[in-house]
Sequence to fold (350 residues):
Amino acid sequence: MLSEVSDILGEFRKCFSRTASFNYFVVIVFGLIVRYDFHGVTSFIRCLGVWPDYYESVLALFRSNSFRLENINRCWIHIVKKHASFPTINGCWLFAGDGVKVPKEGRRMPGSKELHQESDNSGKPNRFCGHHFGVIGIIAGNARKMLCIPLMAEVQEGVKELRPLQGKTPPVVDGKEKVTVVTLMALLGCKAALYLNHPSMLILDAGYVSGEIFKMAMKFCESGKYLGIITRGKKTFVGFKERHVNDKKKSGFTSIEIFVNFSCIALGLLQILALAKPAAVWSQYSGWLRTVRSDIPSEETVRRTVQHSFFFDFESYRETLVYKIIKPKHRTCNLYLRRSMEIDGINALS
Fold:
């Protein structure tokens, strides 16, 4: 499995203008896959065993100008399109969109605001400060098992003043800029459909039912593409016809979105391997499952397989991209050998 992960990560090289930045991208995404705790960048350094002096370099990637998140999103969507198969409805692929509210303790974090939690879970507070992320995924798989592979994510509340600083275009409805959770989700759906270049349908819950989202989908369809909306209408909604009326260095906020999108890629990698290489996953899996409900492994099963390859058999993957990038940074590598391997790795990648 580690070889397959390396091959897919190698497809992102064209998104980076500097080899060092790409190397740290591989460290982050692979660290997200094999880490065994959830302490941010510290967990990558700890689980991969790299030298602690790389900590600041990994952090610096999130503010680097050597790549654009939009290009990484576009590349990731093309990778998903190439490696996965998708069920269809009337020839359309299916997107799923939803929001997730993540509590944050920092009082001065960009985009953090007081949020209302609509969940019925009594273990969650009614109100808290945090980020409201909107996420778009695509339904992939077959009749035996289907997964939703995350494609892209962004913060969608408290961002009206921050989006111009990120260089993002605002949603436009009836010729007017309108930045809301609904319009930003519609914009994500239109962007995903544009990158995939395939007729698609976006599945949303009733919280996104608004005339604005249908207007944006219709405007997108006028460009020659197609994006349908599937949702549950509210009881208070009725059909109507409108009457005619005569009348640069990346910010800390962008770094948050970059981290979340890298996490989407890490999860999506596991899902692609589960759907495309189920037999290989099961043959390398060394654990035990009391109940196997499908011959398609879960994301956790794939993750355990990759973890085992990294922690117990890493030396068998000397020719892979992940080995050439991580091994020179490992704490067991002496200084002379470390520099030599880094130079050899850069020559092999360039």
